[in-house]
Design a protein that fits this description.
Blueprint (H helix, E strand, L loop, with lengths): L1 H36 L2 E4 L5 E6 L4 E4 L4 E4 L8 E6 L2 E6 L3 E10 L5 E9 L8 E4 L12 H4 L7 H13 L11 E4 L14 E11 L2 E10 L5 E2 L11 E4 L3 E2 L8 E8 L3 H5 L1
């Protein structure tokens, strides 16, 4: 009888674990869907904004005013553009390389630069929301950070936060107001020039208008590698290596982590 009771208890425990796992996976899926459905908010700082379009799927770009886009001749027939009440509706009919386009505000002649490209597979379909510095989102509402008067964090604070999340004991971890996890694809990317070091995004957070991403770097060669932020691909506001020297592949010190801060999500900043 004791043996039967033990088996029943074990089955109940396993059932509880499977049920908990199913709920956890469901919550993660819902959270990822909600995050991907939210507009990506970008501050216009006179730096061209890269916009990658998926062929055959319309992507929306919101501006704080009615705008018009100057269509380059080379995009005629490859791109359909509609401008309605401050929103550009962009639909690529076929792939094309990054092309600079000028968007002008109708009311105040504000100029924006977009680097449009289209790909047959992948590409972002999240709406983009562009606004001017010190202004709210394009729809006139306040962002969650502004509405809650959340603090603005320095690059040092964000980097330290990310490092603690990876390495500090669980009992010492503390959440910071306004910093939230964001989804990221965990697959190798060409983050550093050359083929000596492999980069694998691990985890990412958003804090207001900033993003911080932790990526693992692994030496693929039998020679030590010295890491230099100037070899990084992409647009980063700050980059910090946990260690700036990697030993030969296969040794205990052949890997480290880099913490990247950007104005856009990791994938968009890497382009």
């Amino acid at each position: 009888m004791a043996h039967s009771a033990f088996e029943a208890g074990t089955q109940n425990t396993q059932g509880w674990r499977f049920g908990f796992l199913a709920v956890l996976l469901l919550l993660q899926a819902v959270g990822a869907y909600a995050a991907s459905d939210s507009p990506e908010r970008i501050v216009w700082r006179k730096t061209p904004i890269a916009v990658e379009l998926p062929v055959g799927t319309e992507r929306l770009v919101h501006f704080p005013e009615p705008v018009k886009l100057g269509m380059p001749p080379q995009l005629q027939g490859s791109l359909r553009v509609q401008s309605i009440a401050g929103t550009l509706y962009l639909l690529a009919h076929q792939p094309f390389a990054a092309t600079r386009v000028i968007v002008r505000g109708i009311d105040n002649a504000q100029v924006y630069l977009l680097d449009l490209s289209a790909v047959a597979e992948g590409g972002g379909n999240t709406p983009l929301e562009i606004h001017l510095p010190d202004e709210g989102p394009a729809d006139g509402t306040k962002s969650a950070a502004e509405a809650s008067a959340l603090p603005e964090y320095s690059y040092v604070t964000l980097t330290r936060f990310a490092a603690q999340q990876l390495y500090a004991p669980a009992r010492l971890l503390k959440d910071l107001p306004g910093i939230v996890r964001v989804p990221i694809k965990r697959k190798p990317v060409a983050l550093l020039r050359g083929d000596a070091v492999e980069a694998l995004p691990l985890i990412a957070w958003r804090a207001g208008d900033l993003y911080v991403t932790a990526a693992k770097l692994t030496n693929k060669t039998d020679q030590p590698q010295t890491l230099d932020p100037r070899t990084l691909r992409g647009r980063w506001l700050a980059a910090t290596f946990q260690h700036n020297r990697l030993h030969a592949a296969g040794s205990e010190a052949d890997r480290t982590v880099v913490y990247l801060i950007s104005e856009r999500p990791f994938a968009a900043s890497l382009r």
